[in-house]
Amino acid sequence: MRNLVLTCLILGILFACKEHKTDPAVEATSQSQYWSFENRDDQYTGGIKMIPIETELGTFRVWTKRMGNNPTKKVLLLHGGPGMTHELYECVDGYFPQEEIEYIYYDQLGSYYSDKPDDLSLWTTERFVEEVEQVRQALGLNKDNFYLLGQSWGGMLAMEYALKYQENLKGLVISNMMSSIPEYNDYAQNVLGPQMDPKVYVEIKAMEEAGDFENPKYGELLFEHYYTKHVLRKPLEQWPEAIMRCLNHANNQVYVHMQGYSEFGITGDATLKDWDIRERLKELSVPTLVIGARYDTMDPEHMEWMSKEVQNGRYLFCPNGSHLSQYDDQKIYFNGVISFIEDVDSGAF
């Protein structure tokens, strides 16, 4: 009798598994709907929209490209820099579609595929926040579907946007960005810098103190001894083509004005040098994922602390990653981001 009961239980489990097995036809239909442009106003352009942005200097246009369809999971990607491009995140193509997460590539004003006005007064955090809000409205994103994912400078912009407009958000992802530029500078100069070859570190510091940022040697030393260890942990010749394309498309006017001349902290009179919102993190109540990485240019312990300061946070640690951990610790990165989106969407977060 005991063996009969056991056999029945096993058969029951097997039949249950068969009943819940995904029907290939249903799965194919789902994917075809995900990729369908039918009845979309961007069908003619294959998902691309040039969105008008109102500023005090007039109206300019920014480039966006929508990928997929999902009524409850739409992720707007904020690239780093400032002045870089959406190309930093083209690897998303390898992960979001199979989860049927809709995502929107977006080049901020001044970046390669958008308008590039030549006026330094436009390059302020406050104006970029209003730009993101205008993009949100134009794309029909709202608190029932809108996830904002920002990496590096994009993470800074995402935090600033959330502090003003979090009622529009369903979820926030702060990727590889600290909440304080002074603390970022301290980490770069006093923790990561001294880990370099002492002779190289002295040479880099001497050029910075002399303001010799245009010296080709400055960039060469940083790429060889800093970027390949803390920005993307691969030899430069193995960096993904999308990253190299992004670097070639960078708007140096925006980058130097706001960030300075390198990723080795904020240099010169860059406008972001005093940015610090540590005391305001507790104002954020929207579900928030903070991503840090062991070898990042940003302090991973600070980013873990940030996840505890917000009211409803989670921390994702990439043990093999650096600043672009979406590339050098890719599976950990995207598994964590996808789990966060799914948990928020299902109400489990």
TrEMBL record:
Highest taxon listed in the record's lineage: Bacteria
UniProt KW keywords: Hydrolase
Keyword match Transcription: no
Record's keyword annotation contains ATP-binding: no
An example Gene Ontology molecular-function term: peptidase activity
GO cellular component: membrane
Annotated GO biological process: proteolysis
AB hydrolase-1 domain segment(s): 75-329
InterPro entries reported in the protein's UniProt record: AB_hydrolase_1, AB_hydrolase_fold, AB_hydrolase_sf, Peptidase_S33, Pro_imino_pep
PANTHER family hit by this protein: AB HYDROLASE SUPERFAMILY PROTEIN YCLE (PTHR43798:SF31), MONOACYLGLYCEROL LIPASE (PTHR43798)
Similarity annotation: Belongs to the peptidase S33 family.
Identification of the protein by name: Proline iminopeptidase-family hydrolase
Source species: Poritiphilus flavus
